[in-house]
C-alpha cells in the first residue's frame, strides 16, 4: 500500500512533509505493516481510512505533537491469485477488484486444449461458453431494444420481452434500462423546457415592445402635429427659427426611438423563430438518434442469433463426431468442469468448491478440473 503523511503546523501555518514515513509498504505475513518510528501496525482486515487514522494517532502520541499528522493510505497492489489444473497457462496473475473465477480462467488463456481423445469435450465446452456469452449479450440487447421502441412510441415504461420473462436476470436488466430511459427523458424534457422558457421570455419582450410602439407612435403623432403648426407659424414669421428646430428635433428623436423599438421587436421575433427551429431540430435529432440506436440493436441481435446458431452447430458436431460421445452426459448437455479455491481461513489453507461467478480474494489458488460427465 502507498502511504503519504503530512502535518499542518498551526503555530506558523505551514505544512510539514513526513517524507521519512511516506512510502510504499507491504503487508507482512502477520497482517501488519512496519513503519519507521512506529514499528508494526496491524493492517489486515482494516479499511484504508482506519489505517490512516491509526498512523496519525500513533505519530502524534510518539512525538507528543500538538496537531495530529494527516495520513492517506491507498492500495497500490494486491496479492496475486494463482491458477492450476486444466487451464492453458497455469501460474501467477495480478488480482483486481471484482475478479471472478471465470475472469481469472480467461487471464490464464482459458481452459487447456484437450488431447485428441478429449477434443470433442473441449470443443463442446468452448462452444457452450461462447453460447452463454452470446445469450447474455442477446438478453441485454433485447431489453435495450424494448426500451428504445418504448422511447420511439413516447411511452414511459416497457415490458420485459416475452422470451425473457422466465429469466431471473431479466428484471435487473429492465430496471437498468428503465433508469436510463428516465434519465434520457428527463434530459430531453429539460432541454425542451429551456426552449419554452426562452420563447415565453421573448414573447413577453415582443408584447412589451408593442406597447412601447403604441406609446411612441402617439407621442410621434403629437410631435408631428406640433411641428406642422410651428412650420405654419414660422412661414408667417410668428415664431423663432430655434422653436422650429426644437420641434423638428423632437419629432426626429421620436422617429429614431420608434425605429429602435421596431428593430428590437424584429430581433425578438427572429429569436422566437430560432427557438422554434431549435425545438424542431432537437426533436428530429432525438428521433434520429432513437432510430439509429434501434437499428444498431436490431443488427447486433441478428449477429448474435447467427453466432448462437453457429455455436449450437459446433456443439452438435462435437457430439456427433466424437468417439467418446457415448460417455457424454447428453441429459445435462454439459461436460464436467469443477472449480475450487484454496484460501487461507483462520491461518489455515482450506479448499472451497466455487462457481464461475464466485468472487475471488487476493492470494487465492484456483484449481480447474475439466473432464467428461459420466452417466
UniProtKB/TrEMBL annotation:
Sequence ranges assigned to domain AprE-like long alpha-helical hairpin in this UniProt record: 134-311
Gene3D superfamilies, sorted: Outer membrane lipoprotein wza domain like (3.10.560.10), wza like domain (3.30.1950.10)
Residue span, Soluble ligand binding domain: 81-114
Superkingdom as given in the UniProt entry: Bacteria
Chain segments annotated as coiled-coil in the UniProt record: 185-212
GO molecular function: polysaccharide transmembrane transporter activity
The entry's keywords: Coiled coil, Signal
Domain Polysaccharide export protein N-terminal, chain residue ranges per copy: 3-75
A Pfam family this chain is assigned to: HH_AprE
Protein's name according to its UniProt entry: Exopolysaccharide production protein ExoF
Organism of provenance: Rhizobium metallidurans
